[in-house]
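Lab notebook, bench 4. The sequencing result for the construct came back, and we need a structural model before the next group meeting so we can plan mutations. Quick request posted to the team channel:

Model the 3D structure of this chain.
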Amino acid sequence: MNNATGKRLLALVRGADHAHPGEEEANRRLFAGLAPDPDRRILDAGCGGGGTAVWVQEHGYGTVTGMEIDADTVLLARERHPEVAVVEGDLQTAAGVLAGPFDLVYAMTALHAAPDQPAVFAQLGALAAPGAELRLLEYSDPHGRFAAATRGHPSWMRWRPLVPSALSGTLAAAGRSLVELQDLGPELTRWYEDLCLRIVAKQELIEREFGADWYESVAAEYNGILGSVRRGDLGGVVVHAVVHPPAV
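Done. Here's the predicted structure in token form:
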């Protein structure tokens, strides 16, 4: 669903411009403990249709700039949410496009789609102010078997879920310290079970607005994800990290 049509379809199913599992419950989980600050400069890395960026601003956490790689999705976000600045660009080269620094960088299930995750972490680190937070809600490979379990499946070809055991080293190489890692396994199962039920409940509406092929595609994709989550091949994590302050 990594295109504007897919984002519109998911917004129809979810009832808001969120493409990530858990929607507003996930937002609350990711931003738990963060004090409102209207002066905070925030980057939404892989903002999709802009729904989370609007939610973050409406809750007073700061002013959000979103970055999205798909040009049509950028136009969708700008059309629906003109109160958020959305920049077209690849997270793997973000520092060459965006003007930092940012006090908080977050991403909602965006990094697993990046072919070069170390480059993304390095770019986001370059855009962050000293001591800035990184908050991620992301897919994980909890048992190291995701690639083998999904080999040959076209929908999974570009997925690179985070490996929890390697995350400290990955973040350290990008100048960040891991502060907290929370497992989302039970929540992810519940979120996808609920989403699959909602897709079925809205079959007629989806087919009327997008066509039967799109309904079959979205139903198959998310039932496939649910199956992978139930088997334990795919998990979820919330990550809190901070940028190392400069040496003195």
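The beta strands are 41-45, 63-68, 85-88, 102-108, 128-140, 176-183, 235-243.
Will bring this to the meeting.
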